[in-house]
Amino acid sequence: MTTRPVLLVPGIYNSGPLHWQSLWQTQHAGVARVEQADWAHPVCADWVQALDDAIARAPQPPIVVAHSLGCLVAAHWASRADRPVHALLLVAVPAPAGPNFPADAKGFAPVPTTLVPPGQPVRRATLLSSTNDPYSTPAFAARCATLWAAEHREVGPLGHINADSGLGDWPEGWALVQRWRAA
User: Fold this and answer.
1) DSSP reduced 3-state for 142
2) Where are the domains of the chain?
3) Least enclosed by CB within 10 Å: which of 38, 64, 91, 141?
4) pTM over 0.85
5) What are phi and psi of 120, to 5 degrees?
């Protein structure tokens, strides 16, 4: 039996070497990053296509783990997907109308109102948010979770849930992925 693949979808500027996504990729088998042509000037349609291409290459429906702008990429992909994923983990979804949303990110608004077209299976979706994320608000995260029929877990004051949050390889997040890999 093969290990279920995990696809990492970083946000703008990619995830640096101390980010939990990068640490997961170096520490665990079957974890790959969705590469983007331009990390500094994201265009939603291009980033969604890169995710779709990566999912198409996966040997079985993958677990998609998105961070920050990557959450909006995953949401836009899932709103019109024609292939299944095993699970979506959406971490620190940013608010496109928020004051700190990157001006160089094009086409990410409006936020999709559903993750899954009728008849398209996503076995599970979980959205993790912080109470003090500079790119979002607890209310925005809760609204996205409701729109997307995702389980919502508020993880406390962890900022943008990134390397600056001091999470290291974030064992709590990896434990969730491991449970999904076993299911």
Assistant:
1) helix
2) 6-182
3) 38
4) yes
5) -100, 115
The sign one gets for the Cα dihedral 131, 123, 169, 26 is negative
CA angle 73, 81, 6 (to 5 degrees): 60
The domain 6-182 having CATH identifier 3.20.20.70: the answer here is: no
Angle at 73 between CA 118 and CA 36, to 5 degrees: 135
Q: How far apart are the first and last CA of the chain?
A: 13
Predicted confidence (pLDDT) per residue in 12-59, tens digit: 999 999 999 999 999 999 999 999 999 999 999 999 999 999 999 999
Strand ordering across the sheet containing 87-91: 31-33, 6-9, 63-67, 87-91, 125-129, 151-154
The amino acid at 7: L
- Percent of all residues in the chain with a pLDDT value above 90, rounded to a whole number: 87
Report yes or no: 182 and 176 within 8 Å, Cβ to Cβ: no
